[in-house]
Amino acid sequence: MDGNFYTGRRVLITGGLGFIGSTLGRRLADLGAQVILVDSLIPEYGGNLFNIAGYEDRLRVNIADVRDEFSMDYLVRGHDILFNLAGQNSHLDSMTDPYTDLEINVRSQLSILEACRKHNPAITVVYSSTRQIYGKPDYLPVDENHPLHPTDVNGINKMAGEWYHLLYHTVYGLRVTSLRLTNTYGPRMRVRDARQTFLGVWLRRLIDGESIEVWGEGTQLRDFSYVDDVVEAMLMCASHPSAGGCIYNLGSPESISLADLARLLVELNGDGTYRLVPFPADRKRIDIGDYIANYARIRDELGWQPRIDLREGLRRSLEYFRMHRQHYW
Ligand SMILES: NC(=O)c1ccc[n+]([C@@H]2O[C@H](COP(=O)([O-])OP(=O)(O)OC[C@H]3O[C@@H](n4cnc5c(N)ncnc54)[C@H](O)[C@@H]3O)[C@@H](O)[C@H]2O)c1
How many Å lie between the centroid of ligand 1 and the Cα of residue 203? Predict the structure, then answer.
């Protein structure tokens, strides 16, 4: 990725105080971009002002809700790039409160795109999609041509959000790229509970000296992306001349069962235990089983490769949360 590309660029990040958005914002500030972070700081989600500690002078923050069409109409103006990351991310919450998920992950996405079409059609947009839209895989590894059959409301809504983005590319020529993220982890992720990802709460329990709970037999396979690698992929998508209109999976060369992941974490922590517990029924109903992404397309077309392996990424994550636990617990 050509780092100079971002010097002086005007960049808007929705969800910019969240885990991935803030990491992206910090990196963009280092690259010399002029960045505005838009975030509603809804308490149950991952937004956290501490995520931009040390960068307060270099990142502008606008506390706004993407559901507010009038704010978004105004905010998209004058920007070169929009990284569209604001989202309701809890699969379980999407089942108990489907309408909030619909409002944020679908309706707001449409109004953000409308704001771009009307007020800034030259903007480049990168949308953070998710592997959840594939549902329970028909085959592994899952490539971008795999059928989409999500297992929960969140997956359906994120799929619709992605398709609106792609539609605005084909119909209106908006330069849009969709990245289908797999489990992303690292410093600044939400660890308060298992609402978004089990890995967050595992890190927290381990640091607190509590046993990690692995659901089921722990045999489910997952692949994980370290947040800096995800940020790099986003930067590549917005800067690469041929990424417009494309969908890319992110993934990892390593896949791991959840029980092995728990063992690895205990080893890296130097202490701790894990135990298998029955899968909670509400989770089991929407579980996708094993998932491994095929990320050959982004590797071959944009040259993206994960750089941080799981062991190193988990080590950095444990170190970060041990140091800053008061801001995340
Ligand atoms: N973390 C992952 O493993 C993962 C996997 C697949 C996809 N994604 C996608 O990546 C994006 C970022 O995820 P994250 O892990 O950083 O989550 P996060 O919860 O840390 O960040 C999302 C941010 O969006 C903000 N937000 C939510 N609703 C908003 C609204 N209505 N208006 C303004 N801001 C709002 C939240 O306050 C939060 O700061 C999401 O769109 C998510 O669907 C993440």
Answer: 19
One-letter amino acid at 300 equals: D
CB-based contacts of 97, cutoff 8 Å, min separation 6: none
Helix (H, G, I), strand (E, B) or coil at 193: coil
Sign of CA dihedral 193, 307, 252, 230: positive
Closest-CA residue to 13 (of 109, 131, 130, 126): 126
User: Which numbered atom of ligand 1 lies nearest the CA of 22?
Assistant: 16
How far, CA to CA in Å, does 305 sit from each of 296, 297, 311, 315? 9, 11, 16, 20
pTM over 0.90: yes
Residue 137 in contact with ligand 1 by CB distance below 6 A: no
pLDDT in tens, 124-160: 999 999 999 999 999 999 999 999 999 999 999 999 9
